[in-house]
TrEMBL record:
It comes from the Bacteria. This is Regulatory protein GemA. Residues 50-74 are annotated as: Disordered.
Amino acid sequence: MANLIQLIHIGKNALQWSDDVYRDVLYRITGCTSAKQCKPEQQQKILDYMKEQGFTPEKKKDHGRRPNVSAGRERTLNKIEALLTDASRPWGYAESMASHMFKQPVIEWLTDSQLTKLMQALIVDARRREDKR
């Protein structure tokens, strides 16, 4: 239910509706002036109407699960995460690299040395991408 309300507010902003227009539409469709007052079926009707008006909700990109490591390895993992984000790559990319480099697809199971080498490989990749620009 909260997810529908969130989507409705995203749609309101995407369609650039003022508060008056938004509340008029809600009232016309549901008889309510707030999405929180609406039942889930009514919220879905509002969202369907917004889609008819041109709102296309974007699906959230799944970047995978961030590995859970000890505090001592957190700094290296933060650097890996920054490199992946900069390259717009998911955690699965780093897992694939770890599997290829060390025959170990689970980042949490890498040794400190392997984790550092994975980070260094991502730095090399970032430099290559930079050189291509």
